[in-house]
Write a structure and sequence with these properties.
This protein is of the alpha/beta class. It has helices at 17-27, 33-54, 71-76, 111-118, 132-137, 147-168, 184-199, 242-247, 271-282, 303-326; strands at 6-7, 78-81, 85-89, 92-95, 98-104, 127-130, 140-141, 172-176, 205-210, 229-232, 255-261, 290-294. A seven-stranded parallel beta sheet has the order 1-12-11-10-9-8-6.
Length: 329
């Protein structure tokens, strides 16, 4: 049986100032690739050490080598190239990739840093992949005749990457699909089909992260996704998403990734307010099927905010776990 209320994070961590400066200097030709790699590994090591100190259950490597979750794959997938800068949200921009040829997987894209991080800890480190639907949705397609062709081609690429991670020993692999609710009436089935193509035959436990947007429009349809865990951003909407779970119960064969920390707010939550969110959720699902996580990736916060928010998350989880244990639940 799964331990109750396991903790993890969604993927990205805040980059330290020294690494952000080095990335800017590298782009300007003032820092070598070797020096940037050294500093990126240093920052990755710090992320692993932070999770060890906090007592997290399942680690991430922090994505220190990535600028944008889609742009990174656009830079490293055969058949794609970086495009012009576009705004993603707020004052954040990314080079929107362009599909210019048949997309192909020629070599591992994420394996190096996953192996590095996993080598630093005995705790499992999640493989972190952006899903094919989101990559295509947030790219320009100048090659494929239809969205379906592009998404399924990208699914084959991400499948190969997932297989490489699993072969190397990744127990958990997360497929981020924040764009999967973009046009639910038109092609949500394509999102399900592409996820099936990614996970088919890969020996790992798959999680997916779907953040913000009109979640109600894809629920309960999202329960068709062939993954063990579905993670949603509950805290940003003050746990209003629990109402849809009250109307249609969550799939008993799946686990819920419960977002309890708002990553788009500088304010650090109180332990009690996070406890209350967890307890409200446990009125609907048993603790063995609930994971405690932030709403989304942590790269939007400062390193100090990340530390304080995660300390609150762990303290709240521990308090709720103690209460459940004392009740014999």
């Amino acid at each position: 049986m799964t331990a109750p209320l396991l903790t993890t994070t969604v993927g990205s961590f805040a980059k330290p100032d020294y690494l952000q400066r080095a990335r800017n200097q590298f782009a300007a030709g003032k820092v070598s690739a070797e020096e940037l790699d050294r500093l990126t590994r240093q920052a990755t090591k710090e992320v692993v050490e932070l999770q060890e100190a906090l007592g997290m259950d399942v680690f991430v490597h922090g994505e220190m080598e990535r600028g944008d979750m889609v742009g990174f794959f656009g830079e490293n997938t055969t058949g794609m190239r970086p495009g012009q800068l576009v705004r993603s949200y707020g004052n954040r921009y990314y080079h929107k990739p362009v599909i210019v040829d048949e997309v192909r997987w020629d070599r591992p894209i994420t394996l190096d840093f996953w192996k590095y991080a996993q080598g630093l800890t005995s705790k499992p480190v999640k493989g972190m992949l952006t899903g094919p639907y989101t990559i295509v949705e947030w790219s320009f397609d100048e090659y494929y005749p239809s969205r379906r062709d592009a998404v399924l081609a990208m699914a084959r690429v991400i499948h190969e990457e997932a297989a490489a991670l699993a072969h190397a020993g990744a127990k958990y692999i997360q497929i981020d699909e924040p764009a999967i609710h973009t046009r639910p009436d038109a092609d949500f089935d394509l999102g399900v089909e592409s996820m099936e193509a990614v996970v088919r035959g890969v020996d790992a436990e798959f999680h997916t992260h779907i953040c913000y947007g009109d979640i109600a429009r894809i629920y309960p349809g999202m329960l068709r996704l062939p993954v063990k865990q579905i993670h949603l951003a509950f805290k940003n909407e003050n746990f209003e998403l629990l109402k849809i779970l009250e109307q249609v119960p969550f799939d008993t064969s799946k686990e819920l990734g419960l977002g309890v920390i708002d990553v788009h707010n500088h304010n650090v939550e109180s332990v009690r307010e996070v406890e209350e969110g967890i307890e409200r959720t446990l009125a609907l699902l048993p603790p063995e099927r609930v994971w405690i996580e932030p709403d989304c990736g942590l790269k939007t916060r400062t390193p100090d905010e990340v530390l304080e928010k995660l300390k609150v998350m762990i303290a709240a989880r521990d308090a709720v776990r103690r209460r459940f244990s004392s009740r014999g639940e």
